[in-house]
Design goal:
By secondary structure, the chain is an alpha/beta fold. 35% of the residues lie in helices and 23% in strands.
């Protein structure tokens, strides 16, 4: 492969010199021209006499991917079975497939090749990352989420994590087929969405929060106006026609021009939304989200990181305190008034993603937010392959707050 590496470098350099004057071409025309030039260079060097057809094809694909796509990652990005790509420096690339993490034999040609790839990825979505500002979130053309951390913060070289999403957005039917939801729970959630209950989805990393949010959003009536707010656009709400999508922006080199999630939430209130969907709350913007839910934007949704439903409430309290030094009692009342339903997701020990709880937020009483569990996951054991057996069960507790359902003529139970 070292011999091929040298040939690849030479052909890449020659192709760059030939196509350097073709910058006025459209992206599609440029790609076609570049591919033709790479193939022409290979044939002019008579590589077919020295290498096999497969090796020449590898040379052509590698040069093209390095110059126009995602370098050695291109096969991984195109592999639909891979859900996550983790790069720990130029010579350590890991993937997640079917919930299992494994190391690959893929390495970058050099540290510089990895640096070039990172800069290309973030530049395409108007983001920047430098040693002075070494952390950035971005996305690929297909919607995959990208997180980059550079040295000196990253000690073992540039760190890149790519979270891939399915081409086809997740649906409630998919969640049922995967065993994350039962048909009873799905029918219940559909009524809650149509009745405009405010829903918050929480769970740990990789528990499927964004996919679940996509699925729930597909249940929103098609004639409503939706505003989505995200750090990096990931939601795929293909069923909604009247949608306004907003994305945050980092500050420029002078420290100006930042558009925060907090700002976008405030702006969205002037866009006549019927529902606001916040991709994920991490900080002080939680207060603005809660206030939006409390001021006539019923049916809004969001997600957050937590290890349980109770933990999510505690984290929301902390987030609100980050925005304003309010009394804890006032914060709890605000949360209890804004949220109607909390859904808790988790990845189990067999790597499957399940819905563990669907809980109603009843209100505030005696210094605590009162919760009413409606569905709880009951585990019944494991099969011979170590897969967790069990399903989401109705607790028998009735939904207490039915006012929104009654207003819209929806019979919950």
């Amino acid at each position: 492969m070292s011999d091929l590496s040298e040939i690849i470098k030479e052909i890449r350099k020659e192709a760059a010199e030939i196509t350097g004057s073709a910058l006025d071409f459209s992206a599609g025309e440029f790609d076609k021209l570049l591919l033709e030039q790479i193939e022409s260079i290979c044939f002019s060097r008579q590589l077919m006499k020295k290498y096999s057809v497969d090796e020449v094809r590898t040379i052509v694909d590698t040069v093209f991917n390095q110059m126009r796509r995602h370098d050695v990652l291109e096969p991984l990005i195109n592999d639909k079975s891979i859900t996550e790509i983790m790069i720990n420096g130029p010579d350590k690339v890991f993937i997640e497939r079917n919930g299992v993490i494994e190391e690959t034999d893929i390495v970058f040609e050099s540290r510089e090749r990895l640096d070039d790839l990172i800069q290309n990825m973030v530049a395409k979505v108007n983001r920047r990352v430098t040693e002075a500002e070494p952390v950035v979130d971005a996305r690929l053309e297909d919607g995959s989420r990208v997180n980059v951390v550079l040295p000196p913060v990253a000690l073992n070289g540039p760190l890149v994590t790519i979270r891939k999403f399915p081409e086809k957005p997740m649906t409630v039917e998919d969640l049922i087929n995967y065993g994350s939801l039962t048909e009873e729970a799905a029918a219940f959630l559909e009524k809650l969405v149509r009745a405009k209950y405010n829903i918050f989805i929480c769970g740990g990393t990789g528990s499927g929060k964004t996919s679940f949010l996509n699925a729930l959003s597909s249940l929103i009536p098609k004639d409503e106006r939706i505003v989505t707010i995200e750090d990096s656009a990931e939601l795929q709400l293909t069923t909604i026609k009247n949608i306004a999508r907003l994305e945050t922006r980092n500050a420029n080199t002078e420290g100006r021009g930042e558009i925060s999630m907090k700002t976008l939430i405030k702006t969205s209130l002037r866009m006549r939304p019927e529902r606001i969907i916040v991709g994920e709350v991490r900080g002080g913007e939680a207060l603005d989200m809660l206030q939006a839910m409390n001021t006539g934007h019923d049916g809004s949704m969001s997600t957050g990181h937590a290890n349980s439903t109770a933990d999510m409430l505690s984290r929301l309290e902390t987030m609100v305190l980050m925005a304003a030094p309010l009394p804890l009692e006032a914060i709890k009342k605000q949360i209890a008034s804004a949220l109607d339903i909390i859904i808790f997701l988790a990845r189990l020990r067999d790597y499957t993603r399940r819905t563990l709880e669907i809980t109603e937020v009843v209100g505030y009483k005696d210094g605590d937010i009162v919760l009413n569990p409606l569905f709880v996951f009951e585990e019944t054991g494991e099969d011979s392959k170590g897969m967790v057996l069990g399903s989401l069960k109705r607790t028998g507790n009735p939904l207490i707050n039915r006012q929104k359902a009654k207003q819209r003529g929806i019979e919950i139970e």
